[in-house]
Structure formats: C-alpha cells, structure tokens
Amino acid sequence: MPNPRIKNEEQYEALRDKGYSKEKSARIANTPDSGKKGGKAKPYEQWTKEELYEQAKNVGISGRSKMKKKELITALRNN
C-alpha cells in the first residue's frame, strides 16, 4: 500500500531493502529529483553556503544554522 507522504516509493523501498531506517529512507526519497540519475550536480565545494544550507534543510540535518560551509559539506556527505 503506497504511503502518500513518500514521493518516490520505489526508491524508498530500495533503501529499506538495503537496511536504511524508515526515517532516512523517507528523507532521501522525498528530496527533490530523488531517483533521477545523471550525476550533473556540481561538487558541494562549488555550492554557496546558502545552497548547502537549503540542501541540509531538505534532508533534515539538525544544527545546520550554526554550521560553517565546511561543516555543512561534511554533514551532507555523512548524512
């Protein structure tokens, strides 16, 4: 039964099958453009601090408002 709160149900299920938690799977599956391939995003180092902050907000990283640019990059990569 599909969950209306999950934007990309197929990706959510694939992440759950890999052992991700329900929360983390939902967070990833609900990010904009989830499941799209292409690798066209520029490296985080080329993003502005504001872009990094918005991405951290999208994936639910707490404490982001007090983070410096390098800390945001580390948090996003380790989320």
TrEMBL record:
Residues 1-26 have a biased composition (Basic and acidic residues). It comes from the Bacteria. This is Rho termination factor. The lineage of its organism: Bacteria, Pseudomonadati, Bacteroidota, Flavobacteriia, Flavobacteriales. Residues 1-45 are annotated as: Disordered. Residues 50-76 form the Rho termination factor-like N-terminal domain. Coiled coil: none annotated. One of its GO terms (biological process) is DNA-templated transcription termination.
